[in-house]
Amino acid sequence: MNITPEEMAQLKAYLDRTLKTPNLTVKMREKAADSIEVMVDGEFIGLIYKIEDEGEVSFSFEMAILDIDLV
Hints:
By secondary structure, this protein is of the alpha+beta class. It has one domain (5-63). It has one helix and four strands. It has one helix at residues 5-19; strands at residues 24-28, 35-40, 43-53, 56-62. Strands 1-2-3-4 form a four-stranded antiparallel β-sheet, covered by helices on one side. The N and C termini lie far apart (38 Å).
């Protein structure tokens, strides 16, 4: 299921309110329409997937944290 431009704007606004992270952006992926990329200061931090199940829509934010980033 494709993420619409309206949903993308709503997700961006939600992340801005919730995470309060400056310079957070979202953008469409080149080869997948069911998810968008989340970036902070131009650096990729994760993906948001659109999930539809039994007529209900939800979004899942997936972020991998490398051990080298914890140091």
